[in-house]
Amino acid sequence: MLKLEIPTNIFQQMVAQAKALAPIEDCGILAGSNGKVEKFYKMTNTDNSSTHYMMDPKEQFAAVKDIRSAGLEMLAIYHSHPETPARPSAVDIRLALTPNVIYVIVSLQNNNGSAVKGFHIAGTNVTEVPIRILER
């Protein structure tokens, strides 16, 4: 069963960046091994949109190169939903083209905080994946 463990410091940085960029969707890559995130890469949303994202290809290539050189694997692609729930939109599902990764969504819909959920997306099949925030 797929799972994802995110250290608190990385989780807090993801949420802070999502809030700072709102109402534009934030995006990035989470890397690590054995389902545990060790590093994250913030990407520029080149679409500069509040309803979808497109990672900067040069940043994405550099991140993948760094992940490989560090002996890690891409575990997840994350993005924020500034005004909608933490569930994949029809566009998110259609553009989920990277196999074997978890798609993490940080929702800022609730002004009191954030909701984070993970999903495995294969074609139109969407399955929620447990995410655990690791205390340090």
Strand order of the largest sheet: 3-2-4-5-6-7
Strand content: 35-45%
What shape does the CA trace take? Answer: globular
Report the helical percentage. 10-25%
CATH superfamily: Cytidine Deaminase, domain 2
Mean pLDDT, all residues: 93
Tell me the domain tally: 1
- The end-to-end span amounts to 24 Å
Gyration radius from CA atoms, angstroms:
14 Å
Order of helices and strands: EHEEHEHEEEE
Output the CATH topology. Answer: Cytidine Deaminase, domain 2
CATH class categorisation: Alpha Beta
What CATH architecture would you give? 3-Layer(aba) Sandwich
Q: How many helical elements?
A: 3
Poorly predicted tracts of residues: none
Number of strands: 8
- Largest sheet, described in full? 6 strands, mixed
**Backbone structural class:** alpha/beta
Plain-language structure description:
The chain is built from 3 helices and 8 strands; from the N terminus they run βαββαβαββββ. It is an alpha/beta fold and 136 residues long. The protein has a single domain, classed as Cytidine Deaminase, domain 2 (3-Layer(aba) Sandwich), CATH 3.40.140. The longest helix is centred in the first third of the chain and has 14 residues.
